[in-house]
Amino acid sequence: MSKNYVLGFPRIGEKRELKRVLEEFWAKKVDFNEVEFISKNLRQRHWTYQKEAKIDFISSNDFSLYDNMLDATILLGAIPKRFQGLKESELYFTMARGDDTRVAMQMTKWFNTNYHYIVPELEKDTNFSLNSKKVIKEYKEAKELGIKTKINLIGAITYLALSNSIDNSDNFLHINRVTSVYKELLEEISKLDDEIVVEFAEPFFAKDVETKVLSLLKPLYDELANVASNIKIVVSTYFEHSNEASKILVNTPIWALALDFVYGEKNKEVLDLIAKSDKVLIAGVIDGRNIWKSNFDKKIALLEDISKIVPKDRLIIGTSCSLLHVPYSLKYEESLDKEIKSSLAFALEKLTELKLISKVFFNEKLSLDDEASIKKNKEDNKKREESTRIHKKEVQDEIKNLKKLERSDKFENRIKIQREFFNYDALATTTIGSFPQTPEIRENRKNFKANAISKEQYENEIKKYIDDCIAFQDEIGLDVLVHGEPERNDMVEYFGELLDGFVFTKNAWVQSYGSRCVKPPVIFGDVSRPKAMTVDWIKYAQSKTKKIVKGMLTGPVTILNWSFVRDDIARSEVTKQIALAINKEVDDLQNAGIKMIQVDEAAFKEGYPLRAENIKNYEKWAVDNFRLSVSSAKIDTQIHTHMCYSDFNDIIKTIEAMDADVISIETARSGNRLLKIFKETNYKNEIAPGIYDIHSPRVPSVEEMVNQIKALIEVLPKEQLWINPDCGLKTRKWPEVKQSLKNLVEAVKIVKNS
Ligand code: GLN
Ligand code: ZN
User: Fold this and answer.
1) Has 391 been annotated as catalytic?
2) TM spans, by residue (predicted)?
3) Measured between alpha carbons, how far is 161 from 170 in angstroms, rounded to an integer?
């Protein structure tokens, strides 16, 4: 009897083999055969891992050369016009990455994860037709290895819902066409074996969905489930509950529902309905988004709870979502602290967890090895609960006794004093923090990490960079200078390395988009700040100029949203600890004479919940922690924040509640449009709109920037505005940066004198 189920497996390769070969292929160093060779190896390896772990339902078509949504677009033949006529060998990657004459398709975040998918582009006359053999090919490939897979497909409604409409027509007008293609595909699939499971992922239903869209569900799955009697259809959702959809799906002829019981606790509310129907429930209890070892006892208890309503013979145990969002394996983490390592489980380790939990839950006979692993799980979890490296009384006490949760003075009073103190003009000029990360800077960091140079040599290099960076900004006449961030390779990692409670892995890469991976820091324990993290560098920069130097910190919400966060205490508690650490850094900076301090919240918007019912809480949490992180700032210390967004319409009240003295935002590509919401809502604090796009090497002309500034001051009084680039300059090259910033300063001069 088959009892456990993995929604999908990561594909980039545990040594990032797919990344390497793709990048070599794009650089024309290897041909496509090599890409296919590596890909096939990876698929086989991943299937074999799952088979060896005794997983009953292993996926095919979870592999992709770039992205599964892009694969779906190819499968459905919905090729945007500008790519039509391209040779098959060029089509796929040109859609993903563009070429000299064609812009790439847009990419956006997959729900609230850090994975990005390629957004389909639809219009009224988009044609759909079955256009790829990938699904069939990969099924056969696994079968040759003796592995009968279940086939992963993107559900038709989720596909359409996540598509862009380029002519503003209704994407759902295409539902019948997409259904037809899927029917044709299911007919082909039905010929492959006696019985086949096909999973349609419909995570869109984990959001708040309009009735109109919900009403598409029943006809769609009635039809698909009736194509062939030997196909069993699973509909999966994840990242939240999908109760509205589940209520409908139980009345369709599908075989099973796969639901997330880690991030969608409310899925429990439909257990009754599922029990009354004939549906099988694939209960996602193994966390597919985080890296902590499961607590077997708790997982079994949860499953027992579920089985009080849905009988065991209709239960299968699953991952909460695809394992795409976790790294591969702990086996490369040789140098990771043992104690911390013993509380982790990456994709491979999660397979074993799934197997063991299902054996226990279904009363299968345990081997001696199994018993030892289960015992170890108990011990490790107990150790984790008791560890004094994880749980620190001093930190917890300090949090409990926190008195000053926000600044004491109102903005109106603060800004008066600050303007007097700093004495800056309307349209003051500044930058967002980082300057070009040069090959020399990277080399310097690498050498230092490898112990090839001394600390002194390392620091001297950084000082040289700061000297040049400050001298340049001084010379061109910027008003507020920065040190350039040469000591940081990443705005979260830098702080994580200096804070207690964080560890860094060697190989815990997670795919972000295409061939790109990120290696998030791991927050394992109570966070505290052993010593000042930025003060020396900023002080050094300040000693080189008479102008104001702005200190640079990363905010608590961003640090949290870009890390793997411990799951043994509430996220809100972890954030508070980080906020307190930043708070102390703010205090140290101001005491060292640095009175303008920027606390970046680049990832503020990224953690927004999928369900409206949770938004209030999220916003309160985010705002409270930002306010706490700067509550140490005195009246004449000016707090800046920066957010990489160009749409504030939905969150303007939250921005207002953060109450930063100055907020810098991304506006360059949207002219003055996005400033309007600040005007409409009578936003009082100062705003620093970016006037040129730093994502491209193009140097904007003075004239262009003059026009941009003029457009801005049509909306808001110039006394409320600062002028700066859109974001940090670390990905740019010095010559571009120099010319662009000179032009920026010149543009401001012209506007002031006109
Ligand atoms: N201070 C950071 C920098 O300039 C901000 C980056 C960001 O918000 N993404 O690089
Ligand atoms: Zn930014």
Assistant:
1) no
2) none
3) 10
